[in-house]
Amino acid sequence: MAHRLSFLLLPLLLPLLTSAFHAPMPARRTSSSWVVSGHRRSSSLSGLSSGNGRRPPPPPSYLAFPQLFASGNNGEGEPNEEEQEEKEEDGRLVDKAKSFFADPENRKDTTLFAVSFIVSLAIRTFIVEPRYIPSLSMYPTFLVGDQLAVEKVTKTYKNYERGDVVVFNPTRGYQEYVSQDPYITDKSKIKEALIKRIIAKEGDVVEVKDGLLFINGAAQDEKYIAEGPAYVWGPNRVPDGMYMVLGDNRNHSLDSHIWGFLPKENIIGKAICKYWPPW
User: Which residues, listed in sequence order, are joined to residue 166 by a DSSP beta bridge?
Assistant: First the structure.
């Protein structure tokens, strides 16, 4: 039984015994491979040697001097030419910046520009911003291309009133309607801000009939519209936290009578004046 066991273990122990008692022969380099112990092995680290399926060892120089083979070195432990050029370019830019800011006039101009930019950005973000009219939905009050000033302060301390013209982000109902309407071919502006007039607030009951707008049962005298509405709508109550908005060009406006009420949080600001063109 012991003899049979030794014969079975002998093939497994033989490679270990031979590697322990026999020193490896020195390696010599050929054009594209390494010759070790009389056998040619590929210098590729990712390839597999033929025969035993094991990964070949790296070249001796790679093991002895790994820092020479690190990425970005040219074999002499120094940065390559591209890295050297980048460092020189960075140094030149730093020198130019130092030279520029060494001049008191340049420092003054730069400070003035930075302060002006920050102030203008703050004004546009929190106080007032310019907007333009993209369509005829607000005709005759505004024409295509009119430039408006939209203030953003009022909404922070009070609600808007009937008759206010507001700029707002499109509602989900508007986006769904535009995306599904086959007659609206340009879908690229589905997220652009809109401008309409508030005609009813939360709690108001709105009805459109006989070419007139009725708020809480009373007909409204709307001198700013292009023509009376040629559709029938309502009566419907404006929900809490909502407004009803319509375009002054009632029969050619995509507004609340089509896509629903406008949430307060969608409002960007109130149009306070047209600054261009001046006439």
Answer: 196, 270
Place of tokens 């949080």: 265
92-104 CB burial, b ≥16 within 10 A, e <16? eeeeeeeeeeeee
Question: Tens digit of pLDDT per residue, the chain (279 long)?
Answer: 444 444 444 444 444 444 443 444 444 444 333 333 344 443 333 333 344 445 555 555 445 445 545 544 444 555 577 777 777 787 888 888 888 888 889 889 999 999 999 999 999 999 999 999 999 999 999 999 999 999 999 999 999 999 999 999 999 999 999 999 988 888 888 999 999 999 999 999 999 999 999 999 999 999 999 999 999 999 999 999 999 999 999 999 999 999 999 999 999 999 999 999 988
Q: What is the dihedral of CA 205, 209, 214, 220, to 10 degrees?
A: 160
Helices (H), the chain: 2-21, 60-64, 81-101, 104-126, 172-180, 256-259
Burial 225-244 (b: 16+ CB within 10 A, else e): bbeebeeebeebbbeeebbb
Q: Does the annotation count 137 as an active-site position? A: yes
Tokens representing 78 are 């120094």
| Per annotation, catalytic residue among 32, 43, 137, 188 | 137
Helix axes 104-126, 81-101, angle to 10 degrees: 90
- Which two three-digit tokens encode residue 118? 């920050």
